[in-house]
Amino acid sequence: MQQINRRDWLRMLGAAGLVPILPDMAMGMSSSTYRHTDIRVAMAPDNPAIVFDESKCILCGACRRVCQRVMSITGYYDLKKTGDQPVCVHCGQCSMVCEGDALTPRPEWQAIKAAKARGDIIVVSLSPAVRVSVAECFGEPAGSYCEGEVIAALRALGADYVLDTATGADLTIVEEAYEWVQRLQKERNLLPQFTSCCPSWVKFAETFYPELLPQLSSVKSPIAIQGAVIKTFFARQMGLDASKIFNVALTPCTSKKFEIRRPEFAVSGLRGMDAVVTVRELADWIRSEELEYQTLKPSQFDSLMGNASGAGVIFGNTGGVAEAILRSAYFYLNQKDPPSDFLRFSELRGLNMFSNRSMGSPKVASVRLDATHTVTVLVVQGLANARKLFACLKDGTIKADLVEVMACEGGCIGGGGTPRAKTVPYLTRAMREARIKALYTGDTSRSIRLAHRNPLVKQLYQDVLGDFGSEAAKTLLHTSYQSRKKDLGK
User: Fold this and answer.
1) Contact, 489 vs 82, CB < 8 A?
2) Could you read off the pLDDT of 190-204 as tens digits, one per residue?
3) Which residues in the chain come in under a pLDDT of 70?
4) Which of 108, 149, 259, 323 is catalytic?
5) 217, 221, 255, 328: which is the annotated catalytic residue?
6) Which residues are within 8 A (CB) of 389 and not within 5 positions of it... i.e. 6 or more apart?
7) Bridge pairing between strands 121-126 and 363-370
8) What is the longest distance spanned by two Cα atoms in the chain?
9) Is 259 a catalytic residue?
10) Per-domain residue ranges for the chain?
11) In degrees rounded to 5, what are phi and psi of residue 403?
12) CATH number of the domain located at residue range(s) 6-106 in this protein
């Protein structure tokens, strides 16, 4: 007779609904509020990004493995020391691998319906990776470019304005590139500069590596900038009352649900973004309203904040942030647009990583920006890889001037709110690669591929912000960070 291992027994017990009655001590656990943490992650009930339904958990262990091995969160803190408070960076990768659907993104689309019912103005901003993944929820191949269909769906669901978050990415790019050039020229002690667009990475740094915070770019993420600009510049241009705008970020990222609640992102006392809806949530919303996705006639973004550059579009890919920054950094240093080879850094693209795993397997590019600046750019995906890379940067094994960090494999296209396949593995390498390819195609198809050439960016600086890096720009587009070391109980 074939022996059944412990995990298979647990799966059968979970499927039969028997796991919740198992005594904690039988699992070798302490008196923690969170049961079976030798097998699954501890998820707080008030986690803003992820909901845990214990009745659906089959104790497959997949969530704990991804949290420990890929994100290096579980196993890197002790519930006894944290006062039984789980540490989480809200990446949502646990929900991507959960075999029982016990872990899911916390839904917020119902709040949008309530806002519409009370007469608020619904503004939805569409992140780059959304347009290459939504169609998968309705039977289309991975990487199907569905920007027009998504915009049409949002309008049918009640959106008054649909905007492109890649516009916010363009603003992130021009400020972050300017900040980096200033460090290259005047503040080399703050190098390497770390990107700051991934909220899971930012919270990870605040928690485990607060000593690195001065080296993070102070520029807000594209969604945070998008929220700030909509409730100031966009509201004024459109003659809208900012307090009546209900701002929605449509994104592949569950961690944005945490990020939009950071108090430092408020603008004139108003929260920049009021809700975050992930790709899977949007699909649920479409189905609940009985919209026929296949019959949607493609629509277009609203004209103001709807015409972003290709550089903003590739923000959704691992390596895309670094590549976009390089394009504008070249412009700042040379006062002219970069040559064609700056529009494609193959070394920074795709899922293939540097083979040295002990260093965190970063992608590496050496780039000559001008006569005096040849820089080393590193791109790392997965926070466990980031840990290894930081150790090597600290001991001098590897050097860098710019480091892009993304928590999720593939970047935003692999975010915790993206579509899953029907069977394990729920997000395959082929799915990630198809989404990545589609975003690069979206870049090459754009008439504007440089963030600093976006006409809206030019208008915003001319009418509101002044020069790059100005005090007005710092007020609207930059932020600050805080050490969360105390969350570890140390």
Assistant:
1) yes
2) 999 999 999 999 999
3) 1-30, 354-355, 490
4) 259
5) 217
6) 359, 360, 362, 378, 380, 398, 403
7) unpaired
8) 77
9) yes
10) 6-106
11) -130, 120
12) 3.30.70
